Every structure is written in structure tokens, then in C-alpha cells.
Amino acid sequence: MGRGKRGLLAAAVTVVCAVTVLAVPGTAFASVPAGPADPTPAPSASAAPAPAATPAPVPDAELEKVRARLDGLYHDAAVATDAYNAAEEKTRKQSVQLARLEKRTGAARAKLAELKDQAGAAARAQYRDSGMPPMARFLLSDNPEHFADGAGTLLNGARATKKLIAETDRVERELKRDTDDAAARWKKLERDRKDKDAARKTIKERIKDAEKLESRLEKKEKERLAELERQAARKAQTAWLDTGVLKKKAGTSGTSAEATSAGARAVAFATAQLGKPYVWGAEGPDSFDCSGLTSQAWADAGTLIPRTSQEQWKQLPHVDVTEMRPGDLVIYFSDATHVGMYVGDGKIIHAPRPGRTVTVAGAGTMPILGVVRPDA
User: Each residue of 95-116: pLDDT tens digit?
Assistant: First the structure.
């Protein structure tokens, strides 16, 4: 074969190899440098696969948006949890009151049946005496002794009859009142149950949305997200401490005040729960939500307080944040949907949210609404 023909054949082989390489999807290649054609066949794409492209990391700004969205979802879940707890508490109270009413109406029905039996017995006795009423027999008596006896019997009989009628009337009124009350409470109980079911649905939806959002993140992104949360918490705590809130006021107890014996016991209870999981609606002993932890801690200390953070804020005495002492409750957010127990040194113990455990945190890491004191 002539030199010219061999050159043409080498060029043709090179073109075919290049076309073959280009036809393979996703194959990385470099541009062929200008120069003499190389008759050596190029290696196949399967023999030397190109590395998979690494996805670009999510910028911190985007992760901050994710963090804000998660905070919003878990806050919505906290709002619904407080609504659930409130409805649960109302349901519990209504059930107790209905049980008492049922007991009272049962006793009233038995009493009414007894009174009616007495009235029937009196009527039967009257008919046994020839069907003549006591008044007629009294007026027709011509025996002075019988007359005197009859007068006393008539008077006593009239009194007894009047008392029987009055007692029957009273029991009937009480029975009607309790029956109407029970009917109203049954309706209220049904509304509370519906409220509880609606809150339960909202809680589950918000937690599901949050979990779905977190599941889209890679492991390293979740670690960075957690670090961003820690940074935000440290920043908020530092800003809160920089206000001088922990500095003792002259002439006041200040935040350096020691806990009362009851407060110390409540703190000890909360401390013993560290590491236990958050579960909405839970009051222990194995899991807690935020207000379940604080209410049970104070119950252990011998003081019953409202079940929800919102009611704790409404009903318990308020104290200035600069004067809080261990055992006091710190209420968070403008709608009072979170609560932690102050344990001193600017820290709280709280049950944060689903997916977390009872933990120690800076008291200023969340927006403080105010402080309440169960044993004021």
C-alpha cells in the first residue's frame, strides 16, 4: 500500500474513534490537539469512566432560609400542641364533672322514687280507711277523745304531706338542673374533643412537613444547619447577657437569689429528665413536651400549676426577668407557646421540640415574653 493511502486510512480510523467516543452519553473528553493523525485506537469510555459530578453545596444563605422555615413549622406545631394540651385538660375536667353529675342525678332519681313511693303509700292508706279523707273523718267524729286525736293526726298529716310535696318538688328541680347541666357539659366535651383532634392533625402535619424538609438535606448540610442553629443560639444568648440582665439589682434579690426549697425540688426533677425525648402532649415519665416538663416538675415539688405554657403565663404571678431565681418559669414568644425552667447562671432546662431531648440551654436563646413564679 502506498504512503499516501496509508495516511488516508490512519486519518479515517481516527475520525471513527472520535465519533464513537462522542456518541457515548456523559463521556468526558479533551479536545484533540492539532498535529499528525495517530492511528492508535483511543481507549473505550467503559474502560476509563469519568468521575460523577459532585453536587454544589447549598449556600449558607439558603440553609438560613431552611432554618427559618423549620423554626416556623416547629413553632406552628408548638401552638397546636398548646391547643391540644388545653383541650385535653378541658376534656379531663369535663369528664370528672360529668361523673359527679351522673352520681348526683342517680341519687336524685333514687330519692325521687322513694318520695313517690311514700306518696303512694299515703294514698293507699287513705283508701284503706273507707276512702274517706282525714279531714272528713275528723269533722264527722262525735267522740271528744277521737276529736282531739283526730285534730293532732290531721295536723301532723298535713305537715307530713306538705313536707313530702316540698321535698319532691325540690328533688325534681335539682334533677332537672343537673340533667340540663350534664347535657350542656356533654356538648362542651364533644367540642373539646373536636378541638383536640384538630390540634392533633395540625401537629402531625407540621412535624411531617419539617421532617420532609430536613430529609432533603445531605448529611454535611444537616451538620452545617445544626452549626448555624448553634451559632444563632450563641449570638442570641450573648446579646441577652450583654444587656446586664444577670447583674444583681441593688436592694433586690436579683437573679443570683437562691431557690426556695420547693424551687430546688422542681429543678432537681427537671434535671433528672435530661436526655428524655420531646413528645407533644407528653407529661412523663419517659417523655415530655415543654409545659409537660414544667408542670410535672412543680407537681413533684408539691405545687399544682396549669398544664399549658399559655395558662402558666396567664395564671401564675409574674416577676421581673432581672429578679428570677431557680425554679421560675421563663415563657417564650409573643403567644406564650414555649416554656423552660430557670436553673441559674443564665440557663434553663427545657424540652425543645420534636426530634430533640430535654436539655440545658441559654435562657436568652429565644425571645423571652416574661417570667412567672409558681411559689410566689
Answer: 787 777 777 777 777 766 776 7
* Mean pLDDT, the chain, integer: 78
Average pLDDT over residues 196-219: 92
Backbone angles phi, psi at 347, to 5 degrees: -125, 155
Q: Is 338 a catalytic residue?
A: yes
Q: Is 308:82 a contact under the CB 8 Å cutoff?
A: yes
Q: What number is the average pLDDT over the span 203-207?
A: 94
Say whether the peptide bond before residue 285 is cis (omega within 30 degrees of 0).
yes
C-alpha cell at 344: 441559674
> Phi first, then psi: what are they for 285, rounded to 5°?
-85, -10
Catalytic pick among 75, 146, 318, 350: 350
Give the three-class secondary structure for 37: coil
**Mode of pairing for the β-strands spanning 359-362 and 318-319:** unpaired
Q: Catalytic site residue 350?
A: yes
Give the whole-angstrom CA distance, residue 178 versus residue 176: 6
Residue type, 346: G
pLDDT for 253 beyond 50: no
DSSP 354: T
Three-state SS letters, 127-192 = HHCCCCCHHHHHHHCCCHHHHHHHHHHHHHHHHHHHHHHHHHHHHHHHHHHHHHHHHHHHHHHHHH
Half-sphere exposure of 303 (CA within 13 A, CB side): 22
Given a contact cutoff of 8 angstroms between Cβ atoms, the answer to whether 298 and 266 are in contact is yes
Q: How far is CA 283 from CA 204, 245, 247, 249, 276, in A?
A: 18, 31, 34, 36, 11
pTM of the model: 0.66
> Which of 17, 146, 290, 318 does the annotation list as catalytic?
290
* Nearest-angstrom CA–CA distance, 79 and 310: 10
> Cell numbers 391547643 label which residue?
83
Name the H helices within the chain: 3-23, 60-128, 134-140, 144-215, 219-241, 261-272, 290-300, 309-315
